[in-house]
Design goal:
The complex is a heterodimer of chains A (561) and B (134). By secondary structure, chain A is an alpha/beta fold. Chain A is built from 23 helices and 9 strands. In chain B, β1, α1 and β2 form a beta-alpha-beta unit. Classes of the chains: A alpha/beta (561), B alpha/beta (134).
Chain lengths: 561, 134
Amino acid sequence: MSLTFNKKIFDDIDKSHRKWRDELDRAFESKPERLERFSTVSDREINAIYSPADVKDQSFAKDIGFPGEYPFTRGVQPSMYRGRLWTMRMFAGLGSAKDTNRRFHHLVNEGQTGLSTAFDMPTLMGYDTDSPKARGECGKCGVAIDTLQDMEDLFEGLPVDMITTSMTINPPAAMIWAMYIAMAEKRGIDRSVIGGTIQNDMLKEFIAQKTFMCPPAPSVRVVTDTVEFGTKEVPRWNTISISGYHIREAGSTAVQELAFTLADGIAYTQAAIDRGLDVDQFAPRFSFFFNSHLDFFEEIAKFRAARRMWARIMKDRFGAKDPRSWWLRFHTQTAGCSLTAQQPYNNVVRTALEALAAVLGGTQSLHTNSLDEVLALPSEESATIALRTQQIIAEESGVTNTLDPLGGSYFVEALTNQMEEEAFEIIHKVDDMGGMLAAIERNYPQQAIADAAYHYQRQVDDKQKTVVGVNKYATEEKISLELLEINEELERLQIEKVNRIKNDRDNKKVKYCLDELAEACAGKRNVMEPLVEGAKAYVTLQESCDVFRQVFGEYRDPGIY
Amino acid sequence: MVDKRKVRIMVAKPGLDGHDRGARIIARAYRDAGFEVVYTGLHQTPEEIVESAIQEDVDMIGLSSLAGAHKYLFPRVLELLREKGAEDIVVCGGGIFPDEDIEMLKKAGVKELFTPGSSLEEIVRWVKINVKLR
């Protein structure tokens, strides 16, 4: 029986729904529906209409409630955007630290409220620019960071005690974070006041993004070291940004993104508890990162379901008592994989729709992709349009006037419930395999995502899914954009810079720091303090990473498809 | 009649770029089209790719790159193939390439480049027309 409506009302609704459906079916006998099947981008079938019948088992108090109230379906804070807008945080990184520093200043001057750093491939993989593996990659998809000197150049003139910084870094997250702490401390700013986020989510690397260095088990051990260190030393830092973004970009469905992300969160929580930490000490500093794809309502339902599921997981499964441990706070990025190289100006519209879904889903922070991001790193002009898109949503559209405006929509609530149920099924499957590490070893998430990606591509090829400008409304006309180019000279200059630093530093101190690090890795001591000391002595990123590789071993892609 | 062997294709990911959604979809599409497929997995150096292509005796290498390092990595693969006397292995590429780079890569010997939006059918058809058994 309905928890929201009494039986009599519900029976009446049911009767009129059936009558409506009968009439509709009769109408379709002569002129059928436009499509045989209406489905989301994740191929979830959607009904023609939703009514109280679709949410009959839902309780307002238990399942929906008010923002800031358990289970937080409608938002984590009681005031949401009426109190404070989301953080507009544009992901930026290009060429050298000095180039990126200029972009940071530009974005802050244009009204951006937080920083977000993109690193180049060698940095992401733990190699210095002078490594043979780094040939041709310096500065190409982000900024190159080899030593503390680069970190100092990157944040020159930016108030790191006032502004929070997000850094998208995974295998060498501990090293990069150590450099950031060292940079702040050299300026006289205490580690206890700096705020920001390191992505530091290794599990999703094995599942989807594929920047990895050491095998899964030691990778999780290092992540747990950072959680422990952050809890005790850097209390304003988000130690992990548990990420579904890359899972979705790799081709998963919305439900798979939801399920695998929360399953990763469960694994990190368990690992920290096993370390002896109290759940309410560290869980409030876990943050999340989701994709906002094109399917508007499915995405909104996903965000709402994610909040409710995490609250339930933390309270029921882990016994967390502090409400802040129950909060799923998340950053969102619009879907890079939804952008098209063809007719690139259409990307502005796609991004606006995706950003709107993120806002209606209650995100805490947002990156909007630039129209040219499918072709190159964004130009300054296109990055500004993307930022303006957020400002228009925030300050012109009126959607921020009320909280969770879609709460109570039969469709959105039904979809939220359905996605929660399906995602919990996947999480139980992962539990049955023995947890996420075991599931990754069996390639379960990797294979499930590859299947979904292939299925979607087939649907696009068969025109069951429309991609405007690509498989429909295509034109011959070529639109050329002014793309940002990375100077090929940069690699040589950056190699000179790191070599100069290696010559000038105290190499005895460097050796001491690396020995300390190796000892910490091999034993049980937390790796963070030796890394901060090393950063201050200008130990390079790769020198520290090589210690990890030596002690923990290297992970190779199994290459399944 | 002599049994004709199947066309053998290596799908390869050179460099540090981890974007493998495209490469894995293409590998499946080639397999479903009846070709024999070897997928290298991620993070291969040009040297490793050329060495295993020769060892696996492939007719074609499909290189995938989405993070901007193609201008060094692709020509390097072709250079190594020539050094090893295996320049008859056809090389094509897929990923994100600005127009000027496409010209440059074709001059360097990449036979065809597929950019986002290319259909699987088109990519498979190209192999059937352009790749002969070595």
